[in-house]
Amino acid sequence: MKLLKGIREYLRVPRSARRIERDVRDELQMHIDLRAAELQRGGLSAEEARRAALEQFGDVGDAEQFCREADSAGESKRHRRSVFDELRQDARITWRQLGRHRAFSLTAIGTLAIAIGATTAIYAAVHAYLVRPLPYPNADRLYQMFTAPTRDRFPNAPRLDDVDWAPLYREFPGAFTWDLDGFTVAGEERPVAAVGAWVPETYFSTLGLSPAMGRAFRPDEFDAGAPAVALISHRLWMQHFGGRPGVVGESVRLYSSDRPTETEIVTIAGVLPANTWHINRFTEVLRPLPAPRMPYILPLPPGMTRAQAEARIDAIVRPQLGGTVDPAWRMGLGNLQDEYTRRARPVLLSLLGAAACMLLIAGASVAGAMVARSAARQGELQLRVALGASRGRLVRQLLTESVVLAGIAAGAGVALAVALLRGVESRLPSWLGSPIPSSTGALDPGWSVLLLAVAASSAVCIVFGLAPAWILSRRSIAGGLRRAERGSGGGLAPALRQVLIGAQVAFTMILLTGASLLVTSVYALGARPLGFTPDGVTSAQTLLPESRYPDSVSQVRTVNRLIEALETDPRIAEAAFVFGIPFGRGALPMPAYAEGAARDPVTAPRGGVTIATPGYLELMRIPLRSGRTFTDADDARATKVAVVSADLARTLFGGREALGQRFALGAPDGSSHQDSSLYTVAGVVGETSKPVAGEELPDIYLPYAQHPQGFMGVVVRARGDDPGIGEVMRTQVATVDDALALEGVSPLPSLVERDSATQRVLAGLLATFGGFALGLTLLGLYGALSYMVAQRGRELAVRAAIGASTDSIVRLVLREGSRTTVIGLVTGAIASVWLTRILASRIAGVQGGGVLSIALVGLVLFGSALAALAIPAQRAARVDPAIALRGD
């Protein structure tokens, strides 16, 4: 009840209608009783006097209604005037206090602004990726279909080539798939490579897509044998066709990588909007898909759950596969947005958690400073109470100061957040490994997101600002005046400061542990032996259209001519073609089976298969351990050979000599399908460190002449540092075939660096947050102990006067500060164990540091805390008892 009364007093809540009605009734009854008593004294009986009083008073109901209305209006007017006057007074006093203590005000506002700005910016990114729906109609009903219960590989998965998917399309109207393809667009100044896809009609209706220029595909254009048409992206229209308005209806030569028999002359039907966001990047060219394959995206009908949809899919597919299918196998579904953001989610949530920790540390730091400041103002505040100010009035004043500080800091934090978002917007997709899911490709948080983040951040600041007000409400006037006279540090303030500082230490421990874990992982990634030399190597991709190079003989011959043309330029020392550029696209993970061994894809070792021309291993400086590398003799007529890494050789053949041994390769998806070919090991090379489909695998190299591909990577090693090497490569390729496009020219070191971009960014941000938090924590420890020394000056002087040594006083003061530090460290260490497990399991390339790294962080933090505590401890030891006692 006291709490409710205090809240009512603080808020100056006006009387309720029931209270007013009761007061009016009591007041009118009092008047009637007084008149009846007067009439009774005049000689009337009690009953006659009351009856006469009521008759003289008139209609009681009308009087009650009139008084209630008058009281309600007056109460509301008084409340508004009182609240406005008090708010104006509180604001004036607050501004005066902030101006009088500029150092404190600027420090508090700056601290909170940095924390609010960082938290708001990170929440805006979280909202853009994880909260805001994908820019499609009914995006929450879109699901991605897997060929296994989850995205993970399923052993002995059945092959689905002969499944009739028509019933599934009828069950889920709007389902669609795509057939990814690589195109070469010719006909302008220079041919360009464009990634695209063949899509069905439902692709456009389900995603709500329509061209900005021209028209969409007509239904008859999805039939086999229909005139060849295409939609192109806005980027391709601007960069390759110069943004010509008349491009719609033009015919261009379009070479397909996967469908060489398709018509080369294609009519451009339309241009997609500039702000179109697609699920994947294969949208430079879209062609009609005549016969849909296995659906890739399913829109769930209203009311159907994911479990129900998976059951319907299983009921349609399983009967078509026969009775040999593993009972545990089924086709699964995953929410499209969750699947798209699966890589970005753990990074963003980790950053949001770190920013929240930093915000709490900043709030606790400012709260600790305000507690000390309110204690220093104790005499002033208690004197105001003695002069008539209510306790609630003073609490309101202190809360007003907290609100003003939080408001100013929130405004500065919003400005900082907007600046941060503009600065990282273009870099964020590369850091997180996926474009921002937005039709504009921008973070575009909007005012609602900014206000929500700022409101939450400000609420934290205001809650921490309640601390000094709560302490003040628990103190008596006399006790406060006596403490003001003595300078005693007793009461709730020291205990609350210790709690706040302990929380700061714990959160700082968590941040520093996460930062150290990520920094160590990034350092390990940078220090790992790659097994090859990327410096001086430039990579690119090209496509040999099967319509121009219909057989393997023509493809191999052309590749050899391209290598020769590249190496004739004096600026290029070596050149090779490869399917599977390191840290790029192409290498396939496949299970390998030694000849005669059981072909079990679950237990078999897996390797990353790379197809390369002779000279590739030498160009990459991959060391040869035994045997030989590829030669021109390893063609289609020769025995199928392979070069394997030493690690795979040991795993596959045990302790036997690998040279001359034979092995087979399984399917990349881990299904039971097997390749009957056997490969003879011609050479063993050193290990390379590079990801293959998201994991590190030993290497298997196959000769290009025995496995020709249309889509290949080109790698060259320049003789020097030539920034124009990409243009040199294009020029030399054009001398062989001016219709070949060379795209994706990039120095190989940049691909290596991009692989660890996520870890580097996360490590850098956490290190920044941790450093900021460490500074605040050390400052808080220093300030709290300094204040304690000042408040307990009389006690320390008495100790010194009765013979306490300097060392004992130093130990006493250090014990006060280190106790709080140790409690915070223990709490933070427990949370850090959980944190390291989360980071190691959710973020690729991060390994758990164990107890040792947590202990090292704890030692560093404890040592820093002792250094911060040493100054006030030494100051306490130098207290002159005579001066301190005389001053008291």
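the 2nd protein, sequnce then structure:
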Amino acid sequence: MRVVDVWKYIVIVGVCISGAIQTQAQIQFKGKIIDIDTKEPIGFANIWIKNTQIGCISQLDGTFVLDVRKPTDTVMVTALGYKDFSIIGRNIPKDTLIIRMVQAAYELDVLVIKPGKNPAIPIVKTAIDNRRSNKPGSIKNIDFIEYNKLNLSISNLDSNLYATKFVQKNPEILIKINDYDEHWSIPLYFSERLTHEKRRENAYPEVTEIVQNQYGSSFINSDITTKYINSLNADMTFYGNLRFLMKDFISPISTQAQVYYKYILLDSLQQDGSTYYRIRFRPRNSQDLAFYGHMIIEKNTGVLAEIDATLQQSANLNYVKNIRLYEKLQKLPDGSWFFKQHKMQVEFTPQLSQDTTNNLLNTPIFAIKSTTFITDTAQVNEYLKNKTVPSRFNLARKQIQQDTSLLNQLRPDTLTSLDIITRQAIEVTNEIPTIKATNKMLDMFLYGYYQIGVIDLGPYLYFVQANEIEKIRFNLAARTSPKFSKNMLIGGYVGYGIRDRAYKYGAKYSLKMPTRFYGALHASYDQNIYRIGDFKQNLDFIRENVLVQSDDNLFTALLTREPNKAVYLVKKSVLAYEQQITPNIIIKPSYGFSQHYNPPYFNFDAVQTESFSLHEIGAHVRISFKEEMSNNHFRKIYIDSRYPIFHVNVVQGKYVLPYTQGWFTQLRFVTRQDILIGVGRMRYVVEAGITNKPVPFPLLEFHRGNETGGSGEYYFNHMKYLEFASDRFVNVYAEYGMNGFIFNKIWLVKKLNLRELLTFKACWGQLSQNHASIFDLPAQTYELTVPYMEAGVGITNFLKVVRLEYIWRINYHEHPDVRTGGFFFRFQFEF
């Protein structure tokens, strides 16, 4: 052997031995960080090896895991408002180390404190006054990379569960979040998502989906989850009231903040030549949707640089045990502020039993979401240009791809041990037959369809219908699933009516277009029973996320006491093209042909005209603002938004009867919004429309009456069917919920968690055309000479699911057989 080869051999062996020794010497540091006085866990603490870039952040429960390479390494632990902690590698115990942090004492700046004045108030007022200009989302020109991570699991399961036969047969479905945890968890979902966003003034943000990795139960729709995370990143910021679970949570720097919060100035901090104040806040009332915690505000600008907030557990909120939020900003080179990190922890609890020891009925679902924003120009350019990206990824257009190796390169932080075991457990669990069947059932109840291979049966609410023409109708409905084709849908149904002994059938076809935003071609044929005046299902402009369009479905068949006779048969065909022009504008031009048959209880005329036909060319435009939309196999699902939504629908139509025909134009405008006003939340809907020429009466606006005996959210509950008709009209629906603002202050009553409710509904209209020249209107139909009005007062959240209100009919008492007042209730699920 040559000398050179010998030296090569020695070097190789030496490197291997050195590596082995180094690996052997590596220490896994497991710890939990808590406050020494309160014993509360400290989340978001920084743990790192001194003089290196190796580190991690503690979880919301205070736990962390860090690999220490050398016994001589010094591990540092720092947390906002606490003294630093350090430990030498050789002193790290094998078991989990409980680190008890001591609060730091800071010397306050010299403040002029007047008698009776809270020194924290002027600081908070500065933050409130400047919140709009300081809001990070308002920055017009910026490039950044955003990393999102979400972890969902069923938590706090009793260890006795491990003894069941199913778990013993499938032990991989259970994990422990921590080694010292006494309870087990079942992982449901884990995802990572990395995007690049480019914002420019007077232009829509350009978002490139770099990579996404998802592991989860099939009933958790990945696209809906992604869109909901996007909405959370926009809504769950303390620069405005926080929007979550269709609720508004009060920010400590909102305009209403001083009504809801008390503040204590704790200390001041000096950093980079700026002064920051640390302020503790807590709610004034124990049941308000408000937080306790601390925040850091910059002295001169009022920038909310950092906040750690936890929702008070006594808040008037259902099914949520705990919410903890953390938000941190970073200062950009130009002096503006932008997001650096969001963290969110939510614990949902069904609370089906008052017995807190009954884990089966009170099993919580645990959600942890974290978002990191990278704004450094050099880092952004390195990520997008200098990283080795597989050739199949085209970063020039929007897409979502799954690739673990790419995420390994780009993710800002390493995965925690919880992330890794969650991901592994989900992969194994989804292959268990019982879990597969459970996922299918949950998927059906959430999205309406039961999947059998390439076929989806449903929607299940359409399987049974009830009306006065058919009495009971049974349907068999199905469509092709995404397994058949993600870009095409073929569906249909066959039904049979018991009373009329007639078969009904329908079909639909949808084809996705290769456009930048969502685009699809739709064709359909349908035979169905519709309310007179609403064969276009205009109510769907208001309640957009319903499983089935028709009011005639399984629920109404089971719950309706008095069937509606104001119905008739319509056979219609529609050809439409739907295109999303921008993220918030959708247009839908269409052509429709329909045959309208004589209503059996409200005939067209004395000569018994059998039917009339209708041709329509129209366009529908939907406009929203900062709203996320998910597409679940051609079914759009809109994520809750605090901004107004507008619909404009225009139709040019031609009706044809055996003895006459005519052209007409119809215009319909709808807007709705759900917004926090004062101490409560206002929900309103406004509908307006016009028909410019005489038409057969089923094409008029018959204001939605309700004789079912139940409470209709977008119906006039004391108005009879077909009582009022208009060709020019305005409908207004408004309700104001105060979320217990008054009840929360009444002794004993506040324990019931009741919520106040005020409602008002009105409609105005006129019949400006001679519609009787075609068909006479029904005998009991009137024209509105003055606006019709209803008002109500009530409570919600009774037994957590009941809404009870007393409603008055304010006018038109002279009409026969009308109720002028009465109690109405309905089941209403809300957080």
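The longest helix spans residues 3-25. The chain has a mean pLDDT of 81.
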